[in-house]
Amino acid sequence: MVRERILIAGLGLIGGSLAKAFKKCGYEIHAYDINKSAVEKAICEGIVKEKIESLDEAEDEYAFSFICVPVLESIPILSKLSSKIKNGIITDVGSTKTQICKYSIEHKITNFIGGHPMAGTEKIGYEYSFDTLFNGAYYFITPTGMNRKDDIEKLKNLLQSIGCKVEEIDFELHDKITAVISHLPHVVSAGLVNMLSSSEIYCKFAGGGFKDITRISSSSPKMWADISVSNKNVLLELIEAYIELLKNFKLSLQSENYNEIYSYFEKAKLIRDKIVSDEK
């Protein structure tokens, strides 16, 4: 027997992986994407039951609706869906939460709960999606004071059913955390890669270590431009802090202060080793 219906708006890596994971759990999946071929492929694979040609067609029949598009496109979609869907839960998967959560508060969208899976790869598009992407992954949800407790629990239960470790968190704190562990690293990674553009010989000899620390630069430029703009204030503060860190290292290097140079790398090693150890 078919369980509840879920709408996925945006069938890329995250949306496609959610669709596959929910389908595996027995849900009926309906999907919308401006890339019609992605939806057609998902239908051919038996993942998606029905294609939504326009979000204006969305009806109040979905238990859950997931907005899986770049963050600057999320609010217009939320505006459309919230005018149609009054009973089901609407959520998103964007990497920043403050803008969309504040919008939901201002417009009294009580059935919207912000969400963000800490999962993904550097690949983009439905063709790279897979149903186990969220196994063991942290998944932030950012309820507001308007949300019903039973709606929050329903969303938690749904996400846990596909293997997520759900963390409930304030939306502004979420944006500070993700700026440190995700957004700034993408800016730094892109900067390192862009330094190679001055000479082809750098690219020729870029080896495993360089490729490891810059893997994330193969991610969607559109997605990361949107994230940077939507989390501008927090990211600007972190960039200033990072510049100050590099300035201090530069001074240590200029003065040949070996102890400070050693401590810079030692501290990083100890912290990273702990992060890796805690994952086991």
UniProtKB/TrEMBL annotation:
Coiled coil: none annotated. GO terms for biological process: tyrosine biosynthetic process. The keyword Oxidoreductase applies. The keyword NAD does not apply. Residues 4-280 form the Prephenate/arogenate dehydrogenase domain. Transmembrane segments: none annotated. PROSITE patterns: PDH_ADH. Pathway: Amino-acid biosynthesis. One of its GO terms (molecular function) is NAD+ binding. Belongs to the prephenate/arogenate dehydrogenase family. This is Prephenate dehydrogenase. It comes from Caldicellulosiruptor hydrothermalis (strain DSM 18901 / VKM B-2411 / 108).
